[in-house]
Amino acid sequence: MAWHFRRVIAEQVARVLGLPSERVAHCIRTVPVHRKHESPDFQLFMTSLGDPIDTSINHEERAQQLAGKLVCDSVISDIGTARASVTFKINRDLLTRTVLQQISKDGSIYGLNTELFSGLSGRKTVVEYSSPNIAKKFHVGHLRSTIIGNFIANLKQAVGNEVIRINYLGDWGLQFGLLGAGFSKFGSEEELVVNPLQHLFEVYVKVNTAAEEDKDIKLSAQEFLRRLEGGDPHALSLWMHFRDLSIQEYAKVYKRLGAHFDDYSGESFYKEKSQEVLKQLESNGLLQKTDKGTGVVDLSEEGNLSSYSTVMRSDGTSLYITRDVAAALDRLERYSFDEMIYVTDKSQKNHFQQLFKILKILGKDQADRFQHVPFGLVKGMKTRRGEVVFLEDVLDEARSRMLQNMAASGTSKQLEDPSDTAEKIGIAALIVQDFKGQLLSDYHFDWDQALQSTGDTGVFLQYTHARLHSLQALWCSRDTDDIDIASLREPCVIATLQHLLRYDEVIYKCLEDLQPRYLVTYLMSLGHLANVAHRALHVKRSSSEAAHARLFFFNNVRMVLSSGMKLLGISPVNNM
Ligand code: ARG
Q1: How many CB atoms lie within 10 A of CB 163?
Q2: Mind telling me which GO cellular component terms the entry cites (predicted)?
Q3: N or C: which end of the chain has fewer CB within 10 A?
């Protein structure tokens, strides 16, 4: 496996340069696969080794000098240079055998348990994502937060961290005052039970409109909220009813998306705790009253309120940011995490900067463990019902469009559960479309583009996975030690193996930047390489030795494809 080869190379280099071999091993990189000609497998950039003692020679010369002192052995079959790096080629048959055996031994943890991650695992990570607001729209931003947060949580967990997944529901505030005041007039218990999210949203919209014209409704909404805040049991039980039904419904839709949460502590959970935060700020002399009676925290360096955050309304109640401060302090205590990651759209960038600043001002030296992962806007996502209001509609739309495509191409007939398959492919399409670019960039969503079966789409990944899986029907389990390496010497196999060798580096890159696009690009290339190999290597018309070796190869490719897809949040399909 990649790390084994890195170590062998590093030992020799370390001996020649008089450096610790561990450090050298961390500087060795795999080489991206070249379409036209065979590339070396590993590369060591002289710059990564630090500054030379003799600064009169340049890095290119250093690479040549180093290469001249290294020798080929039973592992390294060729040593060369490419600009300021030394390149290494591994003995071909050894490469093939080692990579394939490693994948079949490691299965779904292949590439995730290497020394590359030694500093990045064994930590405790809290990821907060999705966080919709009950009775309000579940817009595309919440969908993005859900799939991105799920990916980050999967990734952190995969390399050996303990991960806590939190959904910080918007389950408090004036919308509940309005619902409480208007439910008896506009709501129906029957409809609520049948479709809670939709019904609450409808009631909310109606009361909201009514309250704009009718002062009494507005007043009774405020009154209901006051009763809620005051702990009135009747008000609270209605609120709880709305909340419970909504969470049940959310959980169903998250399940379709392959996402789940350990904790649904939303804003309501922090209503009392945010009063404590206000007290704490006050007793530390950090809460300043304005002329309007609101409470602010000075965030400026100069102490002149040139930048500040409002944390208290004039009636003494807390705000969104106050509840976030309370939640942050509570989570620090409850989980004593190493890192806390918030996933929201970029419009909340400023909010989180203020939050982290307040934590610092409160003397929390763990403030640097908090991180915000912002993402851009999705434009033009529409469903049959129009603008996106419910997550469910997006998933239904993806499924029905995919079913239609499958019916048109005649593939759905042979499937046991076409609807389930269509759903998994449709969701893969949504995820890939979303993860292709930089998270921070806005993008335009297009159903037809996302659902294309060729090109860099989720459909293509699913298609490739299903095709590789269908080969398994030909597979008869045999000892994996006796693979006929001679049937695996084609350039398309070598290129695929080289690509498989890179998997851990790609995961590392994703972890470093918390960006899924490296993995998406990687899996697309793996899919293309696999398809080329599938066309070039015969299984059925080959000798049983060759067939066995090739099926073993394809199954290993499929395993890595599958494990990468799962990290992205995709459920790979076996037939389509
Ligand atoms: N409910 C919020 C919204 O829909 C997102 C919550 C983000 N997380 C947080 N800790 N503030 O905009």
Answers
A1: 19
A2: mitochondrion
A3: N
**Close Cβ partners of 95 (under 8 Å, ≥ 6 residues apart):** 5, 41, 494, 497, 498, 501
- Expressed in angstroms and rounded, the spacing between residue 175 Cα and the centre of ligand 1 is 15
Element (H, E) at 220: helix 215-229
SS3 at position 112: coil
Whether 136 sits among the annotated catalytic residues: the reply is: yes
Show Cβ contacts of residue 526 under 8 Å, excluding neighbours closer than 6 positions: 496, 499, 500, 557, 560, 561, 564
Which residue is closest in CA terms to ligand 1's atom 11? 324
ipTM: 0.99
CATH number at residue 480: 1.10.730.10
Identify whether the C-beta of residue 287 lies closer than 8 Å to the C-beta of residue 297.
yes
33-66: pLDDT as tens digits: 987 888 999 999 999 988 766 677 789 999 999 9
Residues of the chain with pLDDT under 70: 1, 52-54, 477-481
What string of DSSP letters covers 224-248? Answer: HHHHHHTT-HHHHHHHHHHHHHHHH
Say if ligand 1 is within 6 A of residue 133 CB. Answer: yes
Q: Does residue 250 form part of some domain? A: no
- Our answer to whether residue 142 is catalytic in this structure is yes
Among candidate residues 4, 26, 59, 136, the one labeled active-site is 136
Ligand 1: nearest atom to the Cα of 352 = 11
Answer yes or no: is 457 within a domain: yes
Whether residue 324 has its Cβ less than 6 Å from ligand 1: yes
Query: What's the total number of domains in the chain?
Result: 2
Q: Is residue 262 part of a domain?
A: no
What pLDDT shows up at residue 80?
Answer: 97
Query: Which distant-in-sequence residues (6+ apart) come within 8 Å of 100 by Cβ?
Result: 480, 483, 497, 552, 553, 556
- Domain edge (last residue) among 75, 90, 105: 90
The token pair at 70 is 């290294």
Q: What is the CATH number of the domain that holds 75?
A: 3.30.1360.70
- Confidence (pLDDT) at 408: 92
Residue 535 CA to ligand 1 center (angstroms) comes to 48
Cβ of 556 less than 6 Å from ligand 1: no
Question: Where a domain ends, among 64, 90, 116?
Answer: 90
Q: CA nearest 498: which of 23, 100, 11?
A: 100
Residue 159: CB partners within 8 Å, gap ≥ 6? 112, 113, 117, 120, 121, 507, 511
* Dist CA 396 CA 469 (whole Å): 26
**Closest atom of ligand 1 to CA, residue 320:** 11
Report pLDDT for 440: 98
Q: Identify the helix (H) or strand (E) that includes residue 499.
A: helix 491-501
Which residue is it, tokens 């196999």?
493
Q: Which domain holds residue 433?
A: 393-568
Q: How far is the CA of 181 from the centre of ligand 1 (A)?
A: 24
Active site residue 548: no
**Residue 403 within any structural domain of the chain:** yes
